[in-house]
Amino acid sequence: MDKNSLIAHFLSGAKEYMVGIPDADAGAIKRDVEAILNGDLNVISTKKLKEHVRELIVGHHRITYFKIGSDIYFVRGFRKKSVKTPKNEIDYAKKIYKQLKNKI
């Protein structure tokens, strides 16, 4: 395996969100995840939220995520309804980041 390879992990909150949205939207998210894994960041839209937490922006869908080493963890998805990302989504992703970071 190439040492620069990235591995995607969809945590339960992200998986549940993906199952609950239309197939076309889930497909668009999966294509953007593949672009991240391939390092093709010019074709996707992301935003840094706090510290290590980012969000993947696909239409009105958002998936919070972070990277630890060569692993990218997609934490939870939500539908964007306002200008600001809900604080509870950011706080939850930060909490999961700390838990996973402490296990490594």
Descriptive terms for the model:
104 residues; alpha+beta; YaeB-like fold; 3 helices
Q: How would you characterize this protein structure?
A:
The chain has 104 residues and is of the alpha+beta class. The protein has a single domain, classed as 2-Layer Sandwich (YaeB-like fold). Helix content is 38%, strand content 32%. It has helices at 12-19, 23-37, 87-103; strands at 7-10, 45-50, 53-58, 61-68, 71-79. A hairpin with a 2-residue loop joins strand 4 (61-68) and strand 5. The two termini are 20 Å apart. The model has no long low-confidence stretch (mean pLDDT 93).
**What count of structural domains?**
1
Number of helices: 3
Radius of gyration equals 13 Å
CATH class: Alpha Beta
Question: For the largest beta sheet, what order do the strands appear in spatially?
Answer: 1-5-4-3-2
Mean pLDDT, nearest integer? 93
The class by helix and strand makeup works out as: alpha+beta
Q: Can you tell me the CATH architecture?
A: 2-Layer Sandwich
How many beta-strand runs? 5
Distance between the termini: 20 Å
What is the N-to-C succession of helices and strands?
EHHEEEEH
Instruction: Specify the overall morphology.
Output: globular
- What name does CATH use for the topology? YaeB-like fold
Strand content: 25-35%
Low-confidence stretches: none
CATH homologous superfamily annotation: RelE-like
Give helix % range: 25-40%
Largest sheet: 5 strands, mixed
